[in-house]
Design goal:
Largest sheet of chain A: none
Shape of chain B: globular
Helix content of chain B: 40-55%
Number of strands of chain A: 0
Strand content of chain A: under 5%
Largest interface: A-B, 48 and 56 residues
Structural class of chain A: mainly alpha
Strand order of the largest sheet of chain B: 2-1-3-4
Number of helices of chain B: 20
Largest sheet of chain B: 4 strands, parallel
CATH architecture of chain A: Up-down Bundle
CATH class of the largest domain in chain B: Alpha Beta
Radius of gyration of chain A: 21 Å
Number of strands of chain B: 8
CATH architecture of the largest domain in chain B: 3-Layer(aba) Sandwich
Order of helices and strands of chain A: HHHHHHHHHHH
Structural class of chain B: alpha/beta
Number of domains of chain B: 3
Number of helices of chain A: 11
Helix content of chain A: over 70%
Oligomer: heterodimer
Strand content of chain B: 5-15%
Low-confidence stretches of chain B: none
Shape of chain A: globular
CATH class of chain A: Mainly Alpha
Chain lengths: ~240, ~425
């Protein structure tokens, strides 16, 4: 591994993971250390039982059906974006361990084909949704509401996704090589194997990891904390 | 221009005091997606970004980012973090005192962000900077003065009540019918508004239901709440809570007044840090109870003209009474029509949150009432019923300005009138 790759795809990864975890814990601590107002801020009709309340919380947080009623376009792209995000997150788990059940069913070639189609389409969906998010920011009234943070996050996300797509569509490296790199991170000996070192994909990988690192470092201090805050805030809705 | 150092420090200390967990969530998680765009009648009617719910809260968020977050202190420009300037305060004034507090944006927000809750902080800051709404301050102070000098007001009030009592006796045909005031151990303390129109129909209903009730010396409306001054709002509401305790009533019944429902049900106990020794109910719940228990019987379907119901935000979405008024209206009306949208999705009338009391917003509330006008027209109704004084005043104005050709009624009026029909006919 060259020194630059070592810094970005090695040292910085640990830093990013550390900042992300401590940052999120700090954010949660910050929230919980401030007392709640005992004014009940919920809106009616409220769910009657505890189970109904939890079901409503899940529905409001994962599908937000009310938004569908007044802004279908934004709702559509938001659902698309977040679903694809979840899908690529799951897809990345393959870099830790091969999904053996899929492997058993589809075989080696089948898995590769499946990964190409699913990962590829999710990458395209993410790009399209991000482009929509981005173009929306340039129209009134969204333009007047937006702050630099909004653009910064979108640009970072776009860079991460583009680099990922680049590896997916133009890369010549096989999954086993990436997996070897991820495993090397786990044992604190970050390294690229020969296949990866000599490939052009190395550069897109390093760029992908670099922007992902930045995203994770900034995550706990940005509006992205809605990823956990949404559950707390949506729960207040039925208080 | 930045406000002077001393004021700045005072405002920041105040903001710090006002921070609670709910507020932190709201300030930290907004994604500025602006799905709330079409939730706010004021934005839809004006297309002015100032009235976009997310933008209103964003003004507070900018101050918060600058003074209360680490990243915001280091790189304020990332969040457009702002120092408190006179311009910012003026902008805050514009977006805050125009908000009707309907919380329709909260209903549609994917994170359920309560913009009014954020704006209550804005109001605190404005008041501390000496920029609270002057007219709402005046009205709140007048109510507090009345509480201090109640003996002075009592004489006048009792005189006027004599007159109302005579009307009651005439209407119900019972020379012994009374409007009791300060009667101890009553079942319920009825809190009306200033003006006979909220007292007489209630007195008729209570008389017919043979209720053991007493009338509060104070009016339900709370300009301290509209102003956003918690101390004043508490003092104003406390006049009634103290009265209820003194008279040892079992239930405090709030008249058809939206925000008073919320003040007594959701806010007062938190402001005063105490639990009520009585129940709080809406007059709508009481009427509905009488009907269910058979204590009053309505003259069924006596209204032939089409009737529609406007859900006041503070009674529907923010208090939870949806079914009772519909039940009552359906009993007296042969042609009840729903508005679209309705219930928790209903559009605000355009004048809640003290907007109706601010003359400089008169034109604005007529303009932003256009959605309500459209809704009423769509129903083809000739009578619009709404159990909130604020909504009724606004719909009266809209009726006049947009030539709707409708009549506006309270629920109590419909019920009281229905109770009297057999007597008048015989």
């Amino acid at each position: 591994m060259d020194w630059f790759s070592f810094l970005v795809a090695g040292v910085m990864v640990y830093l990013a993971v550390f900042v992300f975890i401590t940052g999120m814990l700090y954010q949660i601590y910050r929230w919980l250390s401030v007392p709640k107002t005992n004014v009940r801020l919920g809106i009616f009709p409220k769910p009657k039982s505890k189970t109904a309340r939890l079901l409503k919380l899940a529905k409001d947080s994962f599908i937000f059906p009310q938004a569908f009623e007044i802004d279908r376009k934004m709702w559509f792209f938001a659902i698309l974006f977040h679903f694809a995000l979840l899908a690529v997150f799951i897809g990345h788990l393959r870099l830790i361990q091969e999904f053996s059940f899929l492997f058993n069913i589809l075989g080696n070639k089948g898995v590769e084909r499946f990964a190409f189609i699913s990962g590829g389409s999710m990458g395209i969906i993410l790009t399209v949704a991000l482009l929509y998010y981005f173009s929306r920011r340039f129209k009134s009234p969204y333009k007047d509401l937006s702050v630099p943070e909004d653009y910064l996050l979108l640009i970072l996300l776009m860079l991460v996704v583009t680099m990922g797509n680049h590896m997916r569509f133009f890369g010549d490296v096989r999954v086993a090589d990436y997996r070897e790199y991820v495993h090397s991170l786990f044992v604190f000996k970050p390294a690229f194997n020969l296949g990866l070192s000599v490939s052009l994909s190395k550069y897109s990988l390093v760029a992908h990891v670099f922007f992902a690192n930045l995203l994770f470092i900034y995550f706990p201090f940005s509006k992205l904390v809605h990823a956990i805050g949404t559950f707390a805030a949506n729960l207040i809705r039925s208080e | 221009m930045t406000v002077d150092k001393q004021t700045e420090e005072k405002l920041i200390a105040l903001l710090k005091q006002k921070i609670n967990r709910q507020l932190l969530y709201y300030l930290d998680i907004c994604a500025r997606c602006a799905i709330c765009r079409d939730a706010c009648h004021q934005y839809v009617a004006t297309k002015d970004v100032h009235y976009l719910p997310a933008y209103r809260a964003e003004l507070i968020r900018r101050i918060y980012k600058k003074y209360f977050t680490r990243t915001g202190r280091i790189i304020p420009s990332l969040y457009e973090g702002k120092e408190i300037t006179d311009d910012l305060l003026d902008e805050l004034y514009k977006v805050t005192y125009a908000c009707t507090g309907c919380r329709r944006c909260m209903f549609y927000c994917p994170f359920s962000i309560d913009t009014t809750w954020v704006l209550s902080v804005a109001k605190t800051i404005l008041i501390a900077a000496g920029k609270g709404s002057p007219i709402l301050t005046e009205l709140a102070d007048a109510a507090i003065e009345k509480g201090k000098n109640i003996d002075l007001f009592k004489g006048i009030m009792l005189d006027i009540l004599k007159d109302t009592e005579r009307k009651l006796q005439e209407k119900v045909g019972d020379p012994k019918a009374t409007i009791p005031v300060e009667k101890e151990d009553s079942n319920l303390l009825y809190v009306a508004l200033s003006g006979e129109h909220t007292i007489l129909p209630a007195a008729i209903i209570f008389h017919q239901a043979k209720e053991n009730w007493t009338l509060s010396l104070f009016e339900a409306s709370n300009y301290g709440y509209f102003l956003g001054d918690t101390a004043k709002a508490k003092t104003i509401a406390q006049r009634i809570v103290d009265e209820a305790k003194r008279l040892k009533v079992k239930e405090v019944v709030v008249t058809e007044c939206g925000h008073a429902h919320r003040v007594f049900k959701f806010f007062y106990e938190s402001w005063a840090k105490e639990k009520y020794p009585f129940q709080v109910s809406s007059i709508l719940e009481i009427i509905h109870r009488y009907l269910k228990e058979g204590r009053i019987n309505l003259n069924s379907k006596y209204i032939k003209e089409p009737v529609t119901y406007h859900d006041p935000c503070q009674i529907g979405r923010n208090y939870g009474v949806f079914a009772e008024p519909r039940d009552i209206i359906s009993q007296v009306s042969a042609d009840f029509r729903e508005m679209n949208p309705q219930r928790e999705k209903n559009w605000c009338c355009g004048a809640g949150g003290g907007v109706v009391a601010q003359p400089d917003l008169d034109e604005f509330r007529i303009k932003t009432g256009e959605l309500k006008v459209k809704q009423i027209r769509q129903t083809g109704a000739k009578i619009v019923v709404s159990p909130c004084e604020n909504c009724r005043l606004q719909i009266e104005t809209l009726n006049e300005k947009y030539n709707l050709g409708i009549r506006i009624s309270s629920i109590m009026d419909l019920v009281a009138y229905s109770l009297l029909i057999p007597r008048e006919q015989s």
